[in-house]
Amino acid sequence: MIAETPTPAPTLGRRRFRIGDAGLRILAGAAALGSVLLVALLAYKVVEEAWPAISEFGIAFLWGKEWNAVTNQFGALYLIWGTAFSSAVAVVIAAPVAIAIGLFLSELAPRALRAPVGALVELLAAIPSVVLGLWGIIVLGPFLQEHVEPWLAHWFGWIPFFSGDPSNVGLLPAAIVLTIMIIPIVASISRELFLSVPGELKQGSLALGSTRWEMVRNVAIPQVSAGLIAAIILGLARALGEAIAVSQVIGGGLNFSLSVFAPADTLAGRIASQYQGSTSDLQTASLAYLAVILLVMSLVANVCAQLIVRRIRRQMGTGH
Amino acid sequence: MHLGTSSGRARRRRLVGRGMELLATLASLLAVALLVIVIASVVKEGAPALSWDFFTKPPAPFGQTNGGIANAIVGTLLMTAMATVIAVPGGVLIAIYNVEFAPPQVAETVRLILNVLAGVPTIVIGIFIYGLLVVGSGQSAIAAAVALSIVMLPLVARATEEVLALVPSSLREAGLALGSTRSRTVIRIILPTAVGGIVTSAIVAVARAAGETAPILFTSSIVANVVSTDVHGALASIPLSIYTNSESPSVHDQQQAWAAALVLLAMVLVLSIVGRLLSLRTRRQIERMR
User: Fold this and answer.
1) CATH classification of B52-289, choosing from 1.10.1510.10, 1.10.3720.10, 3.30.450.40, 1.10.10.10?
2) Cβ contact (<8 Å) for B211 and A21?
3) CB contact B124 to A (< 8 Å)
4) Is the pLDDT of residue B211 over 70?
5) How far apart are the CA of A63 and the nearest CA of chain B, in angstroms?
6) Cβ neighbours, 10 Å, residue A133
7) CATH number for the segment(s) A64-319
8) What pTM was computed for the model?
9) Quick one: average pLDDT of B15-42?
10) Which residues in chain B touch residue A187, judged by CB atoms under 8 angstroms apart?
């Protein structure tokens, strides 16, 4: 069996295989290189589209307050504010909830429940944003206006966040829709993180008499805190860039209001809502300028998260 | 047992622990409840508007009410199919390169770039393809498919890479030891072993692309209310029809939006669940090989 005589034309066969070998290597390498070039081309093209606005307004676009298609004056200040405000509110609500879900799925839930509940939480991420936006306009917005916002205004109206008149569109419904979008992202990463904490550490802490919560607070969370920050940054990046659902519920207002009841607008939301109504080349270029700002924000957020993750991996690699 | 002897401090610690555990459980319940509430709203509002006409007719002319979303269903199927044809081979090749051929440093860089691409807001991808393919030559389903394929590419590449990395190295070594070249080992042994995982990654990416609105906004949004299969022109799509109808003050339009949302949600959820079940099976199969 082993000593079978070689077939008569091995050289030809082997040679063909070697060419095939190079072929797949080159093809696969080209695809990988292609993905790198694609990102470069994307950045170049978006900046090129924005160029008329960049050369017209320069960096002052970032703090320009006007967005006026009639006078052809465009600035991003209120949109940056709306983006930061809505994403911040969403992250502040979503992060504790999502980390708690991660804890539940990794430490608390009965084994039989972990997989199905985890799957349901991840399905939340599968809901298309346009469907969530539709639900936001027709169900969530009116519900907040009638039941939640009057209550908040009545009891907490002295805080600037809850001043003003309840409305069915505005920052609050947008932030809640964003919260729903980022909970599954942060939850599934936190679950993986908590599962990665070595069992000896958890058991050691419990053996020393900690309650489960003390073990989580004193051992598990400090062990994975960098990873949790990376997860929150990824959630934040998702919130910053969401266009469709936000544009459906946020109301399109330009202002510096601290009130979560007031209509606002975000960078991504403005691009989505003015896609067809753009009346001048400068307006189109200004929308692309907004895309450049978004691109920079998402690049910074993602690269930060990646670097944190890479550092954790290296620490875990050398820690053993 | 020990309740009698425990000091107030110990009791407080236990209570705090219980309270925190309760909160974590409530947070999970909240997430599941949100999923149920959104699905229930879509079913409740959308189901009454579903009918045979809804699936087989294009939208009715203004003022009439017996229209459907046939044009959007056809458009979404065509655009998603084209995007899949671009993204799946591309993503699989990138994964093969990373796992089988690339030096570790290079693989790490490609991975970073893919993660960056996955993090680019989809509306920015829309703006990119608008400038690349739409300016000058006009909107088309092809342009929309290219935009969607960019959304899918990193998803396919990352998921495929994970599955390829699961394939036991003993299989790889066995192939090489038998005198097979690296490529032949990949094509004959590794890909067939991992094919279930690759299909899964494609399904999950399709589910994502089918529901995307932002990349289509600039590339295939100015459409006529007729069923068309001409991919050189703009085609209607389910997400975009939901988007435009959701902004309409007309109750009828809103109802059409709900019904379309029900169709889209059903498609996406079924694909996601099937993908998830398949992925569990593939993983189990590959793990059994070890």
Assistant:
1) 1.10.3720.10
2) no
3) yes
4) yes
5) 21
6) 31
7) 1.10.3720.10
8) 0.90
9) 93
10) 31
